Amino acid sequence: MAKFITLIIFVVFVGGVGALIGTSFSVDAWYEALNKPPFQPAPAAFGIVWPILYVLIAIAGWRVFTSEGETPGWGLWLGQLVLNYAWSPVFFGAHQIFWGIWIIVGTLSFSLAFISVTWDKDRLSALCFFPYVAWLTFALILNISIWLLN
Out of 28, 53, 76, 83, which could bridge 107 as a Cys pair, Cβ 3.0 to 4.6 Å? Predict the structure, then answer.
């Protein structure tokens, strides 16, 4: 039962902080005025994708946190989460498109390293990060495109 409660705490924390940051630093007039590439997703897509990704990120973190013995990847999981949370304030809050790119590069690097260190010990945790890495790769391409167009 304690492990299940810990999972709920992870999901609520990861998703809750993500939602709080996302609603605090969201699309505004500055962003609307930017030139965007034709593959820019509809705003509704972000509201669908991020809750799913945050649940998967939370599950991976919970599994590593509650694993017996050594917890490979815990620092990498925390690092990617801090960078993930930093992107919206930097991009939407500070209007720093270029630095947003580097935050995504860092998040992607931590996430790929997390997959690498957890693959043999906890494959499910690693697999939880595959959709996240795919989305981060898309976000990186989108962020670079916006930077180049503006």
Answer: 83
Query: What is the tally of structural domains in the chain?
Result: 1
Instruction: Kindly list the distances between the CA atom of residue 69 and the CA atoms of 7, 18, 59, 117, 121, in Å, as whole numbers in the listed order.
Output: 18, 29, 18, 15, 11
* Both tokens assigned to 117: 């260190």
Domain boundaries, position 70: 2-149
pTM above 0.90, yes or no: yes
Give the pLDDT of the chain (150 residues) as one tens digit per residue.
888 999 999 999 999 999 999 999 888 999 999 999 999 999 899 999 999 999 999 999 999 999 876 767 999 999 999 999 999 999 999 999 999 999 999 999 999 999 999 999 999 999 999 999 999 999 999 999 999 999
